[in-house]
Amino acid sequence: MIDIVEEVPVHTGARERLLDLCFGEARFTKTSERLREGRLPVFAFVALDESGKLVGTVRLWSVADRSGFQSLLLGPLAVDPDCRGLKVGDRLMRHALNQAAVHGHGSVILVGDLPYYARFGFAAGLLDTVAMPGPVEYGRFLGVEFAPGHLAGLDGLLSASGLMDPAVSLAVPQDLAGLARRV
Question: Quick one: three-class SS letters along 57-124?
């Protein structure tokens, strides 16, 4: 049995290990990561197996265009390879999208494989006037709307929005850390 629950701080280490396993260090170089850095997710869910082991994760982040019009960015979605075929990813996706819709968000966007994400309502070609802050394969730039026409409101370069992560905002930058020790 798999339970989908809200992510809490105790899940952080297991989530990071799962993301490393599924995506490796390359995950930090992806354009979508630029929109997540230093922010808190709007929604974060994990899948736990019957022993309490974290076997899946999905998060949604607030992004805005140049005029401040907002959508949610989904990702990353990851499932423990030992649980593939058990529909863990499907359950995480459906739960995350349901929560986004129930809480009044108009749309969700992501960069991913259309054959996988189409089953959740995602489509290509809805974000032709939207740019990411770095390289992206635009055939993989997908969106789903909960409010008809919502994605037509997005225009221009996306930027991170939403709450700052206090753990990141309180951290001392490396180049200042040495200076602080010398004073």
Answer: EEEEEEEECCCCCEEEEECCCEECHHHCCCCHHHHHHHHHHHHHHHCCCCEEEEECCHHHHHHHCCEE
